[in-house]
C-alpha cells in the first residue's frame, strides 16, 4: 500500500514537471506571406548573420503590488518561465511590448506603477538587459475620460524610447520603427491628440523629404506651421511599404475592404477623429479589471491618414487578445499580436518577426 502511494506520488510529480515544461515551452509556426511587397521567405534564402529578430508581446496585464496569490504563484510564475524559455530558444535581439503592461495602470499611483515596472523587470530575469521598447495601451494610461497628459508624460519617461506624448521613433541597422500613442488618437478633445498628429506629420516629412531636410521642411511648411489637424490628404509618390515598421496598441480600421468604392469614396467627411470611432460591442471579464471592450479600432479617417502619411512597411498592433493577420487595401500588412497573459486568454502567445538587410522579413506566431 505504501509502495503504491509512493509510486502514485512519483507519477504525479513527474506528470506535473512534464506539464510545466510543456506549458512554458513555446511552439511557433510560420505566418505565410500574403502581400506582394516581398517574396515568400524560405529559411535558406538569407544569411542568419544579417537577420534582426524581434519578439513582440502584448497585454501582460501585470498587477504589481496588487497581485494576489494566484497571480504571484501561478500566472506570473508561468509567464516568467515562458519568457525565459522563449528567450533561450528563439534568441531575440529586441523585445517589443505592444501595450497594456499594467492591468490597471491608469488607476495606479506612481508608487504602484513603479511596482508594476519592478515586476516586469523581475519577470525578465536574466534577460532584463535585452533591449526593449513599449507602446502605451489604454489600460496603461486610461480611456479618453480620464486621459491625463501629465501622467502620460510620467509613464512615458519610465519606458525607453517614448516622448512626452507616448510616441517614439528609433532605427536599428536599416530598420526604422515608429510608435504612436493610438489611445490618444481616439480622444477628440485631448491636447495629446494634437501631439500625436504632429508626430505623424514629422515622421511623414522624414519619409518624404529625407532626414537631412526635415528641419528645413518643418520651418518652411505652411501646412505644418499652421496645421489643421483634421487629417487632410497629401499627394504622395512614396510607394506603400517604403516606410517604417509601425507599432500601435489599437489596430487600424479594417472595414474598408468590405465596402470599397474607390479612392474618391474615402474623402474626409468628419471633422474629428472621434466622429469615426469604431467600437465593436463585445466585452470580456478580466480578473481584477472588470468588464472591458476588447475590440476598439482606430477610426477610418485616422487609419487612412496613417497609411497615407507613413506608408508603413508592416504594422504590428494588439488589444484584440488573439492573433490576426489583415491586408489593407494598399497591400500594407497588419499583424495583431495575441495577449501574453492568462488573465486575457487561456493560451497566451506572441509573435517573432525576423527582418533581413535585403528587406525580406518573416514572422512566426508562437
Automatic annotation (TrEMBL):
<dbReference type="GO" id="GO:0006506">
    <property type="term" value="P:GPI anchor biosynthetic process"/>
</dbReference>
<keyword id="KW-0479">Metal-binding</keyword>
<protein>
    <recommendedName>
        <fullName>Calcineurin-like phosphoesterase domain-containing protein</fullName>
    </recommendedName>
</protein>
<dbReference type="InterPro" id="IPR029052">
    <property type="entry name" value="Metallo-depent_PP-like"/>
</dbReference>
<dbReference type="GO" id="GO:0046872">
    <property type="term" value="F:metal ion binding"/>
</dbReference>
<dbReference type="GO" id="GO:0016787">
    <property type="term" value="F:hydrolase activity"/>
</dbReference>
<keyword id="KW-0464">Manganese</keyword>
<dbReference type="GO" id="GO:0016020">
    <property type="term" value="C:membrane"/>
</dbReference>
<keyword id="KW-0378">Hydrolase</keyword>
<keyword id="KW-0732">Signal</keyword>
<keyword id="KW-0472">Membrane</keyword>
<dbReference type="InterPro" id="IPR033308">
    <property type="entry name" value="PGAP5/Cdc1/Ted1"/>
</dbReference>
<feature type="signal peptide">
    <location>
        <begin position="1"/>
        <end position="16"/>
    </location>
</feature>
